[in-house]
Structure formats: structure tokens, C-alpha cells
Amino acid sequence: MSDMTNKIKISQLRALVAVAEHENFSTAALHLEISQSAVSHAIAALEEDLGVVLLARGRHGARPTPVGKRIIAHAQHVLQLLDTMAKEANLEKGLDGGQVQIACFRSVATHILPAVIAQFRSDFPKIAVTITEHYDYINVEQALREGHADLGFTYLPASDEFETWELLRDDYIVLLPPTASTTTQKLNWKQLAAYPLIVPSTNTCSIRIRNHLRFSDCPLNIAYEVREDSTIVSMVVQGLGAAILPRLAAEPVPLGLQAFTLPIPLERIIGVAVLADALQSPAVFAFLDVLMKSKQFVLKAAV
Fold it and tell me: What is the DSSP string of 248-274?
């Protein structure tokens, strides 16, 4: 960038364009709501910095010189770009535009977000919503830290770096295959031990389930660790074993499968989180407001 361009001020460009449009210094000053001497000084300083005469002054006002016309066109373009920048910023800060970036895991994306987004789009149709699915809440929290998401769905309690709101408590269930002959309403450890177990392979679920199974009074066999919830359910349908996974992840349970709570209940607390020290846009707060207002309806629909 040259020394010349470093000297040019936005106020000088505004004054130049105003005089060119009105062909009069005094009218331009009224339009800009500044004094005529301030307009004259701004243009004189700009001409001195550029080293050319931009306006021909006379009894009938001021008109652009040939070089002035070319420079005025550039000045108009610069001012238009500045206005566009300001509009983009205002859209982001307001509710008449901008976007909300959401990070979540699959069961939330499937059972919670669609109804919330439908309501949000109805209330704020000009705000864009983007969703990125992750396999574990750990990746969701990392997306928040790295600025890839404005808000994320995670497990509670979370660390102090996040501000969180509880959404629901989701219990872990056991899915037994169609061939299961269990007729009791409550499953015991011995009955569960009769099946090869299929569990999620994500670190969070796998560790949580393995730790919980230590309460069993008989040996349990984890035969498969599978990443996709839908694959786990399909494996149970095929009679390959019994699955342990969160209820929301199992929905909808296929016809023929039997669902039980664990002999000793286990649950995960799902919440929504934002970075505690981040400056959030009104669009993000609007989404959080819709989410919390829709909470009861959404949770009933999910289960």
C-alpha cells in the first residue's frame, strides 16, 4: 500500500461523491450535515494527496474533471463496499439474517433438532441454520472450542468453559432380539448374560457401559462394538445379540424387538452448550430461546 493511499480518508471520499452528485459544495454540506468549509477542506486535501484536480469550480457550482470522473467512480465503488460490509455485520448481529452453527451427535440431530429448527425457521426465516454431526460429545465440545460451532449438544455436567442448559435425561436400554423368550417386565443380570452384547464403540458410551456392567453379579460378554446406532439395532434384529445403548439412539425400536431398562438404571444427561466467554450473536440466543420453549413438545415427540 502506497503512502498516497494511506492518506486518503473515508470522509474525503464521501465529500467528493456528495459534491459530484449535487454539483454544489453548500448542498453537499447540507446532505452530509457538516459545514461547507469542512467539505471544501476535505476535497482540497484529497486533491493535494492525489496530486490532481478533481473538481472544476465555477459560478455555476462544481463539476468533475475528466480524471475526477474516473476517481469518483472508484470512490463510489469503495463506499458501496463499505456499506455492504456494514450490512453484513448488522445482519450477523441482528435477527434479520446471519446464521447459527450447531454441532451435535446423531440421536439429537434425528429426534430433537428437526422440530426445533422447523419452529425457528417459522419465527426467523432469514437466519440460516447449519448442522454438523459428530460421533461423540467430545468432538462437539472441540468444535465449540475451535469456533466451528456456535452451540453444541453435549453431556452434562460439562466443564466450566461452557455455559450449559439441561434438555433431557436419556436412559440406557437393552434391546433383545425377536427370538428372545423373556416374558418378565424387568431384566436381571443373569438374563442379560445369556446374550452376546452389542454396544456403541464411541469412547464415551463404551467406557460408560463397561464401567456400569461391573455392577453385574455374573460375567457379561461384550461381543461387538459398533459405531453406528442404526447398525447396532439391525444386528439385534438379525439375532446377533442384545444391544445396550441410549433410548434416544435406539428410536424408533423396530417391531419385534423387546426393550428393557438395565437391571441397575443408567442415564445420560443431554444439554446444550455455548462457550462461556464467547460473544454470541442475537441469532444464537434466539435459537436457544426457541429450543428451551420447545423443550417439552420436542421431548414428548422424541420418546
Answer: HHHPSPPTT-EEEE-SS--EEEEEEEE
pLDDT exceeds cutoff 60 at 197: yes
Query: CA 40 to CA 152: how far, in whole Å?
Result: 55
Reading the block at residue 40, the C-alpha cell is: 471544501
Statement: residue 2 has pLDDT above 70:
no
DSSP reduced 3-state for 62? strand
**Class of CATH domain 3-93:** mainly alpha
Q: How far apart are alpha carbons 249 and 302 in whole angstroms?
A: 10
- CA–CA gap between residue 88 and residue 14 (Å, rounded): 20
Indicate yes or no: pTM above 0.70: no
In this prediction, residues 122-144 reach a mean pLDDT of: 92
Whether 145 has a pLDDT exceeding 80, the answer reads: yes
Q: State mean pLDDT over 280-295.
A: 89
The full set of domain ranges for the chain reads 3-93, 99-168+269-302, 171-268
Could you tell me if 20 and 57 are in contact, meaning their C-beta atoms sit under 8 angstroms apart?
Answer: no
* pLDDT tens figures, 69-120: 999 999 999 999 988 887 677 666 677 778 899 999 999 999 999 999 999 9
- Pairing between β-strand 162-176 and β-strand 258-261 as defined by DSSP bridges: antiparallel
Q: Report, at the CATH architecture level, how domain 99-168+269-302 is classified.
A: 3-Layer(aba) Sandwich (3.40)
Which pLDDT score is estimated for 100?
A: 94
Whole-number Å distance between alpha carbons of 229 and 107: 9
The answer to whether 8 and 43 are in contact (CB under 8 A) is no
- Distance between CA atoms of residues 14 and 31, nearest Å: 11
CA–CA separation, 265 and 273 (whole Å): 25
Please identify, in words, the CATH class of the domain defined by 171-268: alpha beta
Domains 3-93 and 171-268 share a fold: no
Residues 6 or more apart whose CB falls under 8 angstroms from that of 29 comprise 35, 36, 38, 39
Question: What three-state secondary structure class fits 82?
Answer: helix
